[in-house]
Amino acid sequence: MKILLASSEIHPYSKTGGLADMVGALAKTLAHTGNQVGVVTPLYRGIQEKFPGITKLDWNLDLPLGSRRVQGEIWTLQVAPGLTIYFVHQPEFFQRVGLYQENGVDYADNAGRFIFFSKTVAHLARYLPWQPEVVHTNDWQTALVPLLIQHAKLAEGWGNIPGTCFTIHNLAYQGVFPATQYGLTNLPYDYFNPTGVEFYQQMNCLKAGIAYSDIITTVSPRYAREITTPEFGCGLDDLLRKRQSSLFGVLNGVDYEEWNTMKNPYLKLPYSVEDLSGKVEDKLELQRELGLPVDAKIPLFGSITRLADQKGLDIQLGALAEMLSTNMQFALLGSGSPTYEKAYRELVRRYPTKAVAKIGFDQGLSHRIEAGSDFYLMPSRFEPCGLNQMYSLRYGTIPIVRITGGLDDTVVDITEDADTANGIKFAEYSARALAKSMRKALVLYEEPELLTHYRENAMTADFSWERVVQEYLSLYQSLRRS
Ligand code: ADP
Prior knowledge:
Elements: E1 2-6, H1 18-32, E2 36-42, H2 47-50, E3 55-65, E4 68-80, E5 83-89, H3 91-94, E6 101-102, E7 105-106, H4 110-127, E8 134-138, H5 145-156, E9 163-168, E10 176-178, E11 198-199, E12 202-204, H6 205-212, E13 215-218, H7 221-226, H8 237-242, E14 247-249, H9 277-290, E15 300-307, H10 313-323, E16 329-336, H11 338-350, E17 355-359, H12 363-372, E18 375-378, H13 388-394, E19 398-402, H14 405-410, E20 424-426, H15 431-445, H16 448-460, H17 465-481
Parallel strand pairs: 1-2, 1-8, 2-5, 8-9, 9-13, 13-14, 15-16, 15-18, 16-17, 18-19, 19-20
Antiparallel strand pairs: 3-4, 4-5, 6-7, 10-12, 11-12
Helix pairs in contact: 1-17, 4-5, 5-6, 9-12, 10-11, 10-15
Bound molecules: adenosine-5'-diphosphate.
C-alpha cells in the first residue's frame, strides 16, 4: 500500500517520548514489508548536522496561515527502499531549542506552528506524485489533517482523497487554544461547533482528529476502552463513545533492532536469555557510572521517564521514601517538571549512597539503566501504552507496574500463569501499594531461581512490530474499500 505518515517527532531524528519511537518503527516495518511509505515531520534544529544526507527538494511551500502566507521548503531523506522522510523546513517555526517548549513553558505560537505543519501534510498528501492511499496522523499536532483533507474535497474538488487514520498516543494532550486561533486554519466557521473543533468555546485540535478521521486508533486495547469513560476520557469520552465503531486499540510494538541486549552499542557486555552473566556486569558498570556502591547483591530499581504527573511520580517518591531505608538502590533518568526534579534531588540528598537522579535526556543511559537494573518502576496514573515496561521485559528487568492502559496489556503478574508471568502489578494508586510491590520484589530477589525464571519469561515475550504492522495494514485496507 501507499501510506503517508505524519508526526511532530520521529526517532532517530527527533524525540521527546514514545510517539517518536512508535512512528519510527511503524514506518520502518511498513516499508520493510513492501509498502511505499512517506513520513512528514518538522526539520528541527540539529537534524541536518546529524544527517547530512538530507537534501532539498525542488518544492517550495507557500501556504495561507490566517491573514498571512507562510513559505517553507521540503527536504528529504531516502532512508531505505520504500521509505522517504519529508522534512518541513520552516526555520522561524522549527529551528528552536525545543520541539514544543523551552524551560517547561510551551511556545506561545504552537497553534500556528502545527496548523502550518498540518497544512503542509495535507498539501503533500494531495500533490505527492506517488499519491498516498492512506494518511496516518498522530496526536494533536497533526489532528487537523483529516479535516483539512475532507474540506479540500468539498470546497476545492480534490477528487480521490486518501483514507485517514488518526492515532491517539495520549488523550491528555489535546492542543487546546483560544478560539481566535481557529482563524489560522483558514477553514470556514461551519466546523467550529460542539460536534467539530470547538471545545468549551476554544479550539481543540485533537477533537478534530476524533471527529473527522475515518478511523481512530489508540496504542493499547485497554486504553481504547478506558478513554470512552468519563474517568479517562479527558472531556472527550462522549465523542469517543459516538465514534466507538471506528475506534481500535492496537498495542504498540518494540523495535528490537534498537532495543536488544545482544548487539547494543550502549552496553558494555551483551547478554541473552541463555547466558545472563553479561547482565550482572552491566549492572556493576551502571553502579560505577552512577557513583553508587558497586555490589551485584544489592537490588537496583530503575526509572526512565518524563517528569509529569501522569507517570505516578508522587507515589513513586512516597514509596521510595519508605523503601530506601532497606537494602536497595534506585536510579532515575528523567526531565520535565521542575517540581519533580527538585523532589528527586531532595530524595538523593537524603539517601546519597542509595539513590541517584540524572536530570536530562540521555538515550545511551536509558539503555544502560534498562539493562543494569533488576526491577523497573512504572506506577503510572494512566498509561496509553508505555514502552519502557516492554523494553524492561526484553532486558530481563522485572517491571513493577500499575494496572492501567497498556501496562495491563503487556505485563503478566507473578501470581498469574507461571509460564508467562514476568512482572509485578498493583491496582491502587497509592505509595503504600507501590511500596508493597517493591517489597514483593525484594523477596523475589532472594529467590534467584524463581527470579531467573521470570526473567526468562520476560525476555522471551514478543512485542515485535511485524505483528503490529499487520493490524495497521488491515485497518488501512478497510479504508480502501470504504
Ligand atoms: P511517554 O511517551 O508517555 O513519555 P513511553 O513509555 O511511551 O512514555 O515512551 C517514553 C520513551 O521516551 C521511551 O523510549 C523512553 O526510554 C524515552 N525517555 C523518556 N525520558 C527519557 C530520558 N530522560 N532520557 C532518555 N530517554 C527517555
